[in-house]
Amino acid sequence: MKIAPSILSADFANLERDIKVVEAGGADYIHVDVMDGQFVPNITIGANVVSAIRPTTKLPLDVHLMITEPERYVEDFAKAGADFIVVHQESTLHLHRVLQMIKNAGVKAGVVINPATPVSAIKEVLSMVDLVLVMTVNPGFGGQAFIPSCLTKIEELAAIRKECGYDYEIEVDGGVVPETAALCAQAGADVFVAGSYVYNAENPAQQIELLKAAIES
Ligand SMILES: O=C(CO)[C@@H](O)[C@H](O)COP(=O)(O)O
Ligand SMILES: [Co+2]
Question: What family classification does the UniProt entry report for this protein (predicted)?
Answer without folding.
Answer: Belongs to the ribulose-phosphate 3-epimerase family.
